[in-house]
Structure of HipA-like kinase domain-containing protein:
Amino acid sequence: MSLRTISATRYVTPLREGGSMPAVVEADDEGMYVLKFRGAGQGAKALVAELIAGEIARTLGLPIPEIVLLELDPDLARTEPDPEIQHLIRESAGLNLALDYLPGAVNFDPVAEQPSGELASRIVWFDAYVSNVDRTPRNTNLLMWHRQLRLIDHGAALYFHHGWDGSSANAGNPFKMIKDHVLLPWAEALPAADAALSAKLDRGILQDIVAQVPDSWLLNADAFADPATQRSAYVEYLVRRLDQRQSFVQEAIHARQ
């Protein structure tokens, strides 16, 4: 499914958790969204990771808010009294990424909530596949909304692409940081999750997901090639990682033990 493109019409409020300072905005479809700024400290690669990892999660049937591409007019900065927010809006003019805002959602508490072994195993498998370092007890990046889990904030996934030369040589990385995953204690069905989820991905599906990354997010000073070549490299890396997935599956199983 192609991502929708909408435009921000009103800056509502900042969300000051974390360093990127996302914001709740209203859009021209009258919906409310959590905007991730291209001009934030993490840069455009955080948005690339959000899009690719998030749409892989959706393909796998995991619960994630809708992701949209969001056009940001720098004129919105004029109504903001905070100079830091003004700067962030102006630096992010153009195409950004946003997620559907979930009013009333609360942070997942691993003491109060216990997900099923099947769901925990699928989320652990997914996070190991996309090398998501940011789903720990300290920062779960999980919300409870209408008593159901929702996955958010995948900007720290695909960390291999920082300073990347396009190589897939490390695609078989076992991802040792899975030992810190907040849901690992419940992930009792990892082999079953591997069989079910790996069957949902292939080269064609991954190409369709990566194709949705805008050119403007791939034109950074540290880019190793043109946008088309970078997209091909992402696909090749993800395909090779899928083919070599037993390394990260076994690492997760051993981490539980």
Observations:
- The chain has seven helices and eight strands.
